């Protein structure tokens, strides 16, 4: 395959705006966002408490002008350069929810919105949870932690949609990954 009919593949990127956290890039006819730091990778943490409750976070998201329900998540390496995905995930889990984990396992990495951003997300399963604090996020965040019985989590999310919350679509993949390995095999 030649690049001749695909100039967007060979066009040089041009930064048209750069802020503290994101930049806007034009490449050929495409416009997209990319992270300024952290290598463009975020981690979404799939966490179930010893009481079999799924950990969700609620926070106001300025771009949507609405409260959202999400799984805990954060940028990889935004605080400590070179930090592993697993260490970043455990740090973010504790910061946002007050839970820490003995172990974190990267399940998969993929794009979040490939038509508008170069960002990728790592789904990380956190296990061996212990409550160590209240959570709530850092000084710039106002996070409410929800712990929902795993067997009721999907119904609870639908209820939140009906109440007007915005839900991160990755929640449904995260719920599936609680009970399944990536090959579809049920987890025991």
Automatic annotation (TrEMBL):
Listed EC numbers: 3.6.-.-
Class of the enzyme per the UniProt entry, highest EC level: hydrolase
PROSITE patterns: NUDIX
Superkingdom as given in the UniProt entry: Bacteria
Gene3D superfamilies in the record: Nucleoside Triphosphate Pyrophosphohydrolase
Native source organism of the sequence: Pseudoxanthomonas putridarboris
One function term, GO molecular function aspect: hydrolase activity
Record-annotated Nudix hydrolase domain positions: 38-171
Cross-referenced PANTHER family: ADP-SUGAR PYROPHOSPHATASE (PTHR11839:SF1), UDP/ADP-SUGAR PYROPHOSPHATASE (PTHR11839)
UniProt KW keywords: Hydrolase
Full protein name: NUDIX hydrolase
């Amino acid at each position: 395959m030649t690049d001749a009919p695909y100039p967007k593949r060979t066009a040089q990127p041009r930064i048209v705006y750069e802020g503290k956290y994101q930049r806007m890039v034009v490449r050929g006819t495409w416009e997209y966002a990319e992270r300024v730091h952290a290598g463009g990778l975020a981690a979404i943490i799939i966490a179930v408490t010893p009481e079999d409750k799924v950990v969700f976070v609620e926070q106001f998201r300025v771009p949507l002008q609405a409260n959202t329900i999400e799984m805990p998540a954060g940028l990889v390496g935004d605080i400590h350069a070179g930090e592993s995905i697993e260490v970043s995930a455990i740090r973010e889990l504790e910061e946002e929810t007050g839970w820490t984990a003995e172990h974190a396992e990267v399940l998969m990495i993929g794009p979040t919105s490939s038509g508008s951003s170069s960002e990728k997300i790592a789904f990380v399963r956190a296990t061996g949870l212990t409550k160590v604090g209240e959570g709530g996020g850092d000084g710039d965040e106002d996070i409410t932690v929800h712990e929902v019985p795993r067997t009721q989590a999907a119904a609870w999310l639908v209820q939140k949609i009906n109440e007007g919350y915005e839900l991160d679509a990755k929640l449904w993949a995260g719920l599936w990954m609680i009970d399944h390995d990536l090959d579809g095999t049920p987890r025991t």
